[in-house]
Write a structure and sequence with these properties.
Nucleoside Triphosphate Pyrophosphohydrolase; single chain; Ubiquitin Ligase Nedd4, Chain: W; mainly beta; 2 helices; 177 residues
Length: 177
């Protein structure tokens, strides 16, 4: 960021008064521009004990499998985002259940939320962001071909305990795994 969207003045990175982190601050009008984490919302769609996964048709991780999910848009709830992303990526209409997992992805400043979801019938298709969409028996999950550590960890936890007393919380601190 070089210029202020409020007044057009130059922007510098510094710690504002009464703050403790470097921020982009306008040198003329002192507007502070905060850079906050982005939210990714998705589902764990299940039909008859099988889990619906999508093979990515976009980067990052083109050709790898993932749970349906993506960035939350302004003016929608996390639940609405999860339902929209499931429709966009898998053409699947699911019945949304409770929040299953919340992962802080520290190295890229994201928070990933996955909701349990029931796929009432095995009706789904590839969307523009998916090469393939498929139901997997738990023993068939392509663990070495999963796109993201948050997806791997969420699936591992889900298969160990599909109905925990509270949401599963965890951190991912590097891009490994």
């Amino acid at each position: 960021m070089k210029y202020c969207s409020q007044c057009g003045g130059a922007v510098e990175v510094r710690i504002p008064e009464d703050d403790n982190r470097p921020r982009h601050v306008c040198t003329q009008c002192n507007t502070i521009f905060y850079s906050n984490p982005r939210i990714v919302a998705g589902t764990i769609p299940v039909y008859d004990g099988k889990i619906l996964l999508c093979k990515r048709a976009i980067e990052p991780r083109y050709g790898y499998w993932t749970l349906p999910g993506g960035f939350m848009e302004n003016h929608e709830s996390t639940e609405e985002a999860a339902l929209r992303e499931t429709w966009e990526e898998a053409a699947a209409k699911v019945t949304l259940g409770p929040l299953y997992s919340m992962a802080s992805v520290i190295h890229i400043s994201q928070v990933h939320l996955f909701f349990k979801a029931e796929l009432p019938e095995p009706v789904f298709a590839s969307g523009p962001e998916s090469l393939e969409v498929r139901l997997f028996e738990p023993a068939e999950i392509p663990w070495d071909e999963l796109a993201f550590a948050t997806v791997s960890e969420t699936l591992r936890r889900y298969l160990q305990d599909p109905s925990p007393a509270s949401p599963q919380l965890f951190d991912i601190r590097t891009n490994q795994g």
